[in-house]
Amino acid sequence: MTGPRSLSGESGLTPGAAPGALNCRFEHESPAHGRAVSGAGGLSSSAMTDSPYLRATAQAYDAVAGRYADFVRGELAQVPLDRAVLAAFAEFVRAAGAGPVAEFGCGPGRVTAHLRDLGLDVFGVDLSPAMIDLARRAYPDLSFEVGSMDALDLADGKLGGIVAWYSIIHTPPEELRSYFAEFRRVLAPEGHLLLAFFESEGGPVTVFDHAVTPAYRWPIDDLAELAREVEFVEVGRMLREPREGERFRRGHLLLRG
Ligand SMILES: C[S@@+](CC[C@H](N)C(=O)[O-])C[C@H]1O[C@@H](n2cnc3c(N)ncnc32)[C@H](O)[C@@H]1O
């Protein structure tokens, strides 16, 4: 593998190349070393935090935002099972009619826009100001805000749905319960939560060398149990085997508030 910042060129990958291969690169490449982790990089006050991992995550995604957006552009069109999960989530949310939907950790906003296309009233939140800039430029009809999903400036029960699409993957396992508690707080009782993550395929929770910043693979049962502990009810789950160029099985959990 080339250096951690080389997100194109190797194996002939260029922006717009096959999305499976792009995913592969974002799973495979080693995290950057020696990255400074000072400063909140323009985070809104609601997201201001002293947490080093949040600052590191924001800075890491700021540094690759444009390349990340190029690499994931068009990916959903290639992955019918991912679209199926998102479509099922949208159907549950529309049926419950419990309020707007937030994509937490929206990155460049492509999943937010997909949810909009599925008929949802949706907005995006992300730690990375550079990601939010890109999302706003790409989808000016949608609302995107800088913030952290563990400290939301949202009223209790405000949301009809939450999607966290590969965005809890960077959260240290011991912090995740408080994230789920925050999701539970802002979600209406009939609201739905959809999680997408890297599944650990029989192993324990494991940290791995995600291209941008360290990430965790979770056993789907453990994540479902953690959600149950903060009173989410499981609606269903989907495991997708890695496509060509991907390293890990993908996990999806659909939960009700
Ligand atoms: C792998 S990217 C996924 C982006 C987007 N969901 C997509 O699929 O294109 C993970 C994103 O989660 C964001 N993120 C990580 N932790 C976060 C937190 N605590 N609050 C908000 N965003 C967070 C990162 O800044 C990054 O943009």
Automatic annotation (TrEMBL):
<protein>
    <submittedName>
        <fullName>Methyltransferase</fullName>
    </submittedName>
</protein>
<dbReference type="InterPro" id="IPR050508">
    <property type="entry name" value="Methyltransf_Superfamily"/>
</dbReference>
<keyword id="KW-0489">Methyltransferase</keyword>
<feature type="region of interest" description="Disordered">
    <location>
        <begin position="1"/>
        <end position="22"/>
    </location>
</feature>
<dbReference type="GO" id="GO:0008168">
    <property type="term" value="F:methyltransferase activity"/>
</dbReference>
<dbReference type="Pfam" id="PF13649">
    <property type="entry name" value="Methyltransf_25"/>
</dbReference>
<dbReference type="GO" id="GO:0032259">
    <property type="term" value="P:methylation"/>
</dbReference>
<dbReference type="InterPro" id="IPR041698">
    <property type="entry name" value="Methyltransf_25"/>
</dbReference>
<dbReference type="InterPro" id="IPR029063">
    <property type="entry name" value="SAM-dependent_MTases_sf"/>
</dbReference>
<keyword id="KW-0808">Transferase</keyword>
<feature type="domain" description="Methyltransferase">
    <location>
        <begin position="101"/>
        <end position="191"/>
    </location>
</feature>
